[in-house]
Amino acid sequence: MRVVAGNYGGRPLKTLAGKTTRPTTDKVKGAIFNMIGPFFEGGRVLDLYAGSGSLSIEAVSRGMDFAVQVEKDRSAQMVINENIKMTKETDKFQLMKMPAERVLSVLTGQFDLVLLDPPYAKEQIQKNLLEMQERNLLTEEVVVVCETDKMVELPSQIGRLNLTKQKTYGISKISIYKF
Asked: Care to name a GO molecular-function term for this sequence (predicted)?
């Protein structure tokens, strides 16, 4: 796995061995950013189930100013830290070592890009996005990227967020929401 494009383009990324995380393939990662960008002029990204941190590192590589990465698994946290060091811009990343459910109550500021790839997709995505809206954590221009198994059916609307794009890549489905 590697960073696909931007400032860190081509640099290798570490992944977690085993089945506790499902790393997004380079092909799917490239497709996601082609759907939403592919480049940014600043902003904050929230990677709520960070895994290896690959998606938020890609977002910063492509122009986001800062990424908050949330991961509760200790092994994954070590991989994220190594991947952050690879960027040589560690000040652009904050790793929060706690469950996603807990982090939403302590986060401050607003996010322009939200990346969601939770283990139990449908229930978690709806719950997380409703709470983010209640807590005013999303900018009016926010783009929310949800990565799920292709069999998961997400609603066309979650609170004020509307499903704007959806594509299937192999076993993964990418759903994009905006206000």
From this structure: methyltransferase activity
Taking each helix axis from N to C terminus, what angle separates 54-61 and 26-36, rounded to the nearest 10 degrees? Answer: 50
The terminus-to-terminus CA distance of the chain in angstroms comes to: 32
Give ∠ CA 175-7-74 in degrees, rounded to 5. Answer: 65
What is the set of domains in the chain, with CATH numbers?
A: 26-172 (3.40.50.150)
For residue 80, the cross-strand partners are: none
φ/ψ of residue 122, rounded to 5:
-60, -50
Q: Which two tokens stand for residue 34?
A: 């082609």
Helices 54-61 and 74-87 sit at what angle, rounded to 10 degrees? 20
Lowest-confidence region among 9-23, 42-56, 133-147: 9-23
